[in-house]
Design a protein that fits this description.
The chain has about 525 residues and is an alpha/beta fold. Helices cover about 45% and strands about 15% of the residues. The protein is built from 18 helices and eleven strands. The strands form two sheets. Strands 3-2-4-5-1-6-11-10-9 form a nine-stranded mixed beta sheet, sandwiched between helices. A two-stranded antiparallel ribbon has the order 7-8. Strand 10 and strand 11 form a beta hairpin. The longest helix is centred in the middle third of the chain and has 23 residues.
């Protein structure tokens, strides 16, 4: 048994260890100044191709129009008078086609505003306190305490993340009553803030979607919200469970579908996770990683399809793309809640997690790419695909430059290894990864709500400008990779924002060492 745990421990450590990027012997064309300007010229040419075609046509047309006289216009009018039937038929057909076009257009979904939970100061859990409390439980052996220390040192988490009250009591008290107290503090706190910020009455909310993967009591969390805020009796309420860290985007996609058939409606989305009843107390290394990474947090989001809300809304939902590769057994089992050999329930993480996440990401961006990438990138991708598969040329697959499609990236703060892998895969800069890394450092992995803490970071820094495109991407058990794309409707003024970031944003970004020395 000891050997088996040691083997699992080594596998987990190797999967979360942050490694240095190795130097490539081939020249990096992206660092070439000449190539940079050639690529910029290519993108500019493709992006403005239609204008380049239209300009000569407009010049010729304007020259022809200048030759028209008053007599020519009178003759054209006379021709139309003698062909009234044709004019009426054409006008009717045009009106009919325009009617069909507008009827088949999907209703626009606006993000009015969102609110984030911030724990109390006495709920902050520095690394040292985390290890002390873990040791006092007497659940963990010395080897697993050492293992947790190594994970925590390499996690990317800072000293101010939050854990629920039940963790700090001695002995710990993980019971249903404490779990409900955590949910009420997180969820009700976020919803109270949101209703105050937007001025929307609770009775006007017609759709409610709550997602929490591991804590699903009866009555449900959505029923708790209905009861607390006395929501209408005909509300469409949904409670999503067991869908992992990407459930927040799933909730947004579900609301998008519901708002297509319910005109002039408000929808409330609540994303959270419960830590009280989901603390692993065994010694299986593959299940201990979640203890070290996951922390308390939650978000409440108000969506609307009312045209009148456009002026005060922050964002407009452009696309949602959901990818589920659970048909593959490896993918299905890579994040799995189960009992260990001692009967203790926990969530095990497979050593194949990063590879499976890469496969899910590839499938997701293959669908998302044509929706958001400029034509220049799509042509390069297609040309590479043809060269590799038709002409069997030995060239590297072309990874589209998503920096041309988005100004901001909200990547689920699942852990340092996840962020490092995605940064390398998508070739993102440290500045573009900053919100994800700072969210992980300040709040830890708050599961599905982490995307909203990252967006809050952008806003607090004053980086969101009108017209900016934002890509939210998250991974979840099953295995899923989900994306949401937003377009900013206005520039966000940080001075008018109320969020957990505002009173400390000037202290960010901070340097996060690859190995923390706080426990040395």
């Amino acid at each position: 048994m000891k050997d088996k745990y040691q083997e699992q421990k080594n596998e987990v450590l190797s999967s979360v260890e942050v490694t240095e990027n190795k130097n490539n012997n081939l020249p990096n064309s992206h660092e070439s100044v000449k190539f940079k300007y050639v690529k910029l010229g290519y993108h500019y040419l493709i992006a403005n191709f239609m204008y380049l075609i239209l300009i000569p046509f407009l010049v010729v047309s304007s020259a022809q129009l200048r030759t028209l006289t008053v007599d020519d216009l009178k003759e054209l009018w006379d021709q139309l008078q003698y062909n009234v039937l044709i004019v009426v038929l054409c006008s009717s057909l045009l009106g009919f086609l325009l009617g069909i076009y507008f009827m088949t257009q999907s209703r626009t979904v606006y993000l009015v505003d969102f609110a984030l939970h911030k724990g109390r100061d006495d709920q902050k859990c520095p690394h040292e306190i985390f290890m002390q409390k873990s040791r006092l439980t007497s659940f963990f052996t010395e080897p697993t305490m050492t293992f947790q220390t190594k994970i925590l040192e390499r996690s990317g988490l800072g000293q101010s993340t939050y854990l629920p009250d039940a963790f700090f009591t001695v002995p710990s008290n993980p019971c249903m009553a404490e779990a409900r107290k955590e949910v009420e503090a997180v969820v009700f706190g976020a919803v109270d803030q949101l209703l105050a910020k937007t001025g929307v009455e609770a009775k006007d909310i017609r759709i409610l979607v709550v997602n929490s993967s591991l804590f699903n009591p009866m009555p449900s969390l959505s029923a708790m919200i209905v009861n607390r805020y006395k929501l209408r009796s005909n509300i469409n309420s949904f409670n999503l469970g067991g869908m992992g860290c990407s459930a927040g985007v799933i909730s947004i996609d579900l609301v998008k579908q519901l708002l297509q058939v319910q005109p002039k409606s408000y929808a409330l989305v609540v994303s959270t996770e419960n830590m009280t009843l989901n603390w692993y107390t065994g010694n299986n290394p593959s299940m201990l990683v979640t203890n070290c990474l996951f922390r308390m947090g939650g978000a409440a989001i108000l969506l609307s399809n009312r045209w009148s809300d456009r002026r005060r809304s922050k964002y407009q939902l452009a696309h949602t793309v959901r990818t589920h590769i659970g048909a593959d057994d490896r993918a299905f089992n890579c994040v799995f809640q189960e009992e260990d050999e001692a009967g203790k329930v926990g969530v095990s993480l497979s050593k194949d997690l990063m590879a499976i996440a890469g496969e899910a990401l590839k499938s997701n961006i293959t669908t998302l790419g044509p929706m958001v990438l400029p034509m220049s990138e799509q042509l390069l991708f297609f040309a590479t695909l043809v060269a590799r598969n038709v002409f069997k040329m030995k060239i590297k697959p072309y990874i589209p430059d998503f920096k041309l499609a988005f100004e901001h990236f909200c990547i689920h703060a699942g852990g340092r290894a996840v962020l490092d892998g995605l940064q390398k895969k998508l070739e993102l800069s440290d500045w573009q990864m900053e919100p994800s890394r700072m969210t992980l450092y300040r709040f830890g992995n708050t599961s599905s709500s982490s995307l909203w803490y990252e967006l809050g970071y952008f806003e607090a820094k004053g980086r969101v400008k009108k017209g900016d495109r934002i890509w939210q991407i998250a991974f979840g058990s099953g295995f899923k990779c989900n994306s949401a794309v937003w377009r900013s409707l206005r520039s966000v003024n940080p001075a008018k924002e109320k969020s957990p970031w505002m009173d400390e944003i000037d202290g960010f970004p901070v340097h996060v060492p690859k190995v923390s020395t706080s426990l040395a």
